[in-house]
Design brief:
With 209 residues, the chain is α+β, with helices and mostly antiparallel strands. It contains 4 helices and 8 strands; from the N terminus they run βααββββαβαββ.
Length: 209
Amino acid sequence: MTATYMIRPITPADDAAMAALIRRSLEDAGLDRPGTAYCDPQLDRLAEYYAGLERPGAYWVAVEWFGDGDGRDSGDDDADGDGCDSVADSRVTAGHDTDVRGAHDLGANGVVIGGIGVAAWPGSEDTCELQKLYVASDRRGLGLGRRLLERALEFAGEHYRRCYLETHSSLEAACGLYRSAKFEFLDGPLPGGEHSAMDMWAVKEVSKQ
């Protein structure tokens, strides 16, 4: 069976699946506690939260379909200006058998298997934060985390000069991904953050503006 993957903007229909994926990932890492995204009040309504930001921000999901490999109608023509055309190149295909038990089946919209967000960093005009990069544990190793990161950094570079992130040393794969993307790790956090349980911080220049 062929799996087809695509990265697109989040919709309200994706909220429950993305929240469950984030919580499960943090539980698996032992980070289901205060001071992490696990306790974020907006976790169950990410589409509304990112759509309502006063300054540039967005959230994208990686979705998966199973079929004959010819793709699904994803709105890539962008007739409604929904931004899907910008992620057309992020679609990849792989012929493999995989277990989707426990995934949130969204029918024509696919199964949500990952996500990433960008939002302005409090108190800074030129810095944004990379937020909530997660990929389902049984979909890692397909390059989806890198695809999500590339999409977010592209957006960040259109609106900000620097992109900042907070993570945890136990998330070794994520830390390796950030290093490979040329993030510079810092000795401490920038002021204004909410995730006090994080113990690694990094920043990357994404634009010369």
